[in-house]
Amino acid sequence: MNIRELKRLLEISTEENIEFDEPHVSLRCEENKIPKERLVHILLHETNKLSNFIEDRPGVYKLYLKLSSRRQLKVIID
Questions:
Q1: In angstroms, rounded to a whole number, what is the distance separating the alpha carbons of residues 2 and 17?
Q2: 58 vs 41: CA distance, rounded Å
Q3: 10 Cβ contact list (under 8 Å, min separation 6)
Q4: What is the mean pLDDT of residues 10-34?
Q5: Among 21, 29, 77, residue whose Cα is nearest residue 53
Q6: Dihedral sign, CA of 24, 35, 29, 9?
Q7: What distance in Å separates the CA atoms of residue 44 and residue 39, rounded to the nearest whole number?
């Protein structure tokens, strides 16, 4: 999968498709001062913020979302 395919996959996803690994995600959102709702919005509607991704293991990806010129948020999806 390349970044273009991943962006397309995210763009056709819905909020119902997203499940969080709690409390990990809430803690990461709190550390980065970003609400989970904003994270969902970025994943589904602001795919241009996706700067890189790495396939950690089959079917598990680390996404790097650019929050600002100096900050990125790493999100793991499977």
A1: 21
A2: 26
A3: 43, 44, 47, 50
A4: 88
A5: 77
A6: positive
A7: 9
pTM (2 decimals)? 0.80
Give me the pLDDT at residue 46, please: 92
Res 20: pLDDT: 84
Q: Which of 24, 5, 45 is CA-nearest to residue 65? A: 45
When the pLDDT of each residue in the chain is averaged and rounded to a whole number, the result is 89
Amino acid letter for position 7: K
| Residue whose C-alpha is closest to residue 46's, from 59, 62, 63, 58 | 63
- 40: tokens are 């969902």
pLDDT (0 to 100) of residue 22: 84
Main-chain dihedrals φ then ψ at residue 68, nearest 5 degrees: -155, -175
DSSP 64: E
